[in-house]
Amino acid sequence: MTFEGDDPLDEVRALIDQVQLESVEFHEVSARRFDSGSDGEDGEISIEVQIREGSGGFGVRLIATAEVAIGEAVVSVAGEYSMSEGADPSSRTIKQFVNEVAVMTVLPYLREGMTTITAKVFGKALYIPIIPRGDIAVELDDEDAVRGDAQV
Length: 152
Fold this sequence. Notes:
Blueprint: H1 8-16, E1 19-33, E2 43-53, E3 57-68, E4 71-83, H2 91-122, E5 146-151
Helix pairs in contact: 1-2
């Protein structure tokens, strides 16, 4: 099935019926506490989004990197999607789906992973703030990953 329409989101809506979330998996959960770091929360959390496109499906990976006074942490979570036989969305449609649906599906896992690992290692949890849909996204015409930043 080829997806065509005047409204780009019509293609995403059509794709929703053709994809299935197969798994959400953690690829990295790590933190390191600095010996001389203060307990302050000042710092930054950056989030990178990556996509993988294949003939039978695609994947989205979110990588959060926290750099704060007390230490640093990295959490990487990926969602894997399969497509129905005959589905043939454009690369642009897959990227739009990632931006509109997949990122928001994987983001809660990323938030939980960051909260858990930093609570264990830092003794105080870092929370990824609520991030509006669209603030973490891949460029529709660019293969490179895009970073979003959140202040802690």
